[in-house]
Amino acid sequence: MTDILDTARQQVLEEGRGLDERQLREVLTLPDDRLADLLQVAHEVRMRWCGPEVEVEGIVSVKTGGCPEDCHFCSQSGQFQSPVRAAWLDIPSLVKAAVETAATGATEFCIVAAVRGPDARLMKQVREGVAAIREAVDINVACSLGMLTQEQVDELAEIGVHRYNHNLETARSYFPDVVTTHTWEERWETLTMVRDAGMEVCCGGIIGMGETIEQRAEFAAQLGELGPDEVPMNFLNPRPGTPFGDLPVMDSKDALRTIAAFRLALPRTILRFAGGREITLGDLGTEQGLLGGINAVIVGNYLTTLGRPATSDLDLLDELSMPVKALSATL
Amino acid sequence: MSGAGDEAMFCGQCGLTLAEPRHEGCALRATLEPPRYCTFCGRRMIVQVTPTGWWARCSRHGDLTSAGSATSDLELDDEALG
Predict the structure, then answer these.
(1) Predicted-complex ipTM score
(2) Sign of the CA dihedral with B2 first, then B7, B9, and B12 last
């Protein structure tokens, strides 16, 4: 039987074809003493098919809390007893956040709302917000506003939203254990409309929500089938008051194995470090992830929690000789 | 934040009184979490996180920012206060 890392070198590194679900299960069950070799292969794949640049992004919540959905990991669901209260960000504050994000060297700024899908008031806020940001600063604007209608997809494309985020969150087979108020297929439908409208597709999820190793492989393979431009990788940060609030923080070696597996499933995608990495991986694991397949980061804070200071990540990228991707390279 | 005449009595992370003996985890959490409760009255605050900071509002005791200073001109939409 061929060693899975030899297979990865030939199939992914040389030919640029991602591993399939069965192969990913093998990767995800490699023993700890093969982890360094796995990360090395994933890093070589990233360098070969994506290059050394790292895409830097900032995110902000324009509408926080009070969401009608029941995503079991989320402190912004109105269905759970979470300490997060509803908030609405006005346009001057949105623009200020975009300007501060651009000042870090970031080329992406994502406007996020905790909603099932946008209503007319939110679409108006986004429309005016995007226009005001474009007036004030040179940065690509992305949005994450839940499930969309075709009309909303068309409007976001029309106003110049460059990329749309909508996470599948987890494997199709595990999704009903995570969300009961809508389906994985409904999310897939929005992603298809986004792609067809010409916006870049950003779709990832959260690892460590109680899914099995097999379901992690399934999820990576399903993302491979979707072929998103970007995959944000979050690790569960258990939120007080949510159904997943008492789950343990994921083991750091499992997290690194998962990063490498996702890179081997998606050789050309932008694979982004997102929420939960601070508590799951710490400083050392962050560096190992960047040397194990990751080629994008969210800098600074997240939607309701705080991250490492942007300077910590930027200094690390400098030490690793990984240049921040320029705006001109993203268009 | 206007705490004139008031004393911090509550944990900004869990909302329990500081007299309770179980706040070690809260102190640790505070490095990666903005405060959610007013330290003067224990009310849940409206909190807005941005890429480079956060601000929080207590309906009774006013506003607090990550810069550590009280401010009176937060740009939170009034509807958020509902």
Answers:
(1) 0.90
(2) positive
Mean pLDDT of B35-54: 95
Which positions in chain A have a beta carbon within 8 angstroms of at least one beta carbon in chain B? 58-61, 64, 83-90, 92-93, 96-97, 100-101, 104, 278-279, 299-307, 310
Q: How many domains does chain A have?
A: 1
Query: Cα separation of B13 and A232, whole Å?
Result: 28
**CATH number, domain containing residue A258:** 3.20.20.70
CA dihedral A281, A283, A286, A287 (to 10 degrees): -140
The mean per-residue pLDDT over the stretch B35-51 comes to 96
Quote the pTM value: 0.93
Residue B70, domain extent: 24-81
Size of interface A-B (CB pairs under 8 A): 86
Tell me the C-alpha distance between A243 and A72, whole Å: 5
Residue A7 lies in a domain: no
Encode burial over B53-64: b for 16+ CB neighbours within 10 A, e otherwise: bbbbbbeebbbb
Helical axes A310-319 vs A277-290, angle rounded to 10°: 20
CB atoms within 10 A of CB A79: 16
